[in-house]
């Protein structure tokens, strides 16, 4: 697609620009003319038929458009969000099938315009099917457009609870935030007792980094704080499935967080630590504090009343076992 946009394909008009003189024949037409990129991909009868078939049904008129403008129209035309990736992929599919047709015709294999349209439709159908595996996707372009415009996804609802630790244990929740990945980053963690009372919470900005770095730093700082408080039976809950599996030593860490992981594993050896993953909906307090550190400033609290009003509300909701509802699109 880049070569078409920049007119860098090794067609006859391009070779002439490089100083090569040769007879020129367009392989895609019954009445051959000189071969050129614009003719082959846009102005020939075959190309116009393909572009018209797809763009007309998408509500885009080809009249007065150049090749670049037609491609740009597909990329920018206002449609429902779920249809946008399909239209953005359409020019690349058309260009690829026209290029294949030209090469087949050049080497003696007949490929009709209908076959090109069929192949483009098949590719678009496969792209949508890959994105929505549980959905029956029609092959015809107009039917596919209609289905995507009218499609209402089926939602799946899950109840997520912040759970109390066992007697004699403390619970640590951690999170990290990053505005840009890498960009401004922050960490947050909270320590709560067996009835959900707040023991300690911290949220602060750190040096620029990535999400994984901030998650790893948050866990390391939380475990160091637990050690300073002489807590050695720790239930660690993290939003990062990557860090959970690394701490359990079932995955190897990426190189850029190796230093933090080594520190976490050293601290782990000095305590009894249970590590679990938690969805963001159940990790609300530290998620709030990580973003609060970036938006408002660092915070450090040793008790319930040191928290801001939103943090106190979250603590109370967790203690009352108010469920958080996790909503996602069902895959089947």
Automatic annotation (TrEMBL):
Q: What GO molecular-function term can you cite, just one?
A: nucleic acid binding
* CDD domains per UniProt: RNase_H_like (cd06222)
Q: Which SUPFAM superfamilies match?
A: Ribonuclease H-like
User: Which InterPro entries does this chain map to?
Assistant: RNase_H-like, RNase_H-like_dom_plant, RNaseH-like_sf, RNaseH_domain, RNaseH_sf, RVT-Znf
Transmembrane region(s): none
Q: By its UniProt entry, which Pfam families does this protein fall under?
A: RVT_3 (PF13456), zf-RVT (PF13966)
The signal peptide, as residue positions, is: none
Q: Which domain of life is it from?
A: Eukaryota
Q: Which residues form the RNase H type-1 domain?
A: 166-295
Name assigned to this protein: Uncharacterized protein LOC104238583
Species this chain originates from = Nicotiana sylvestris
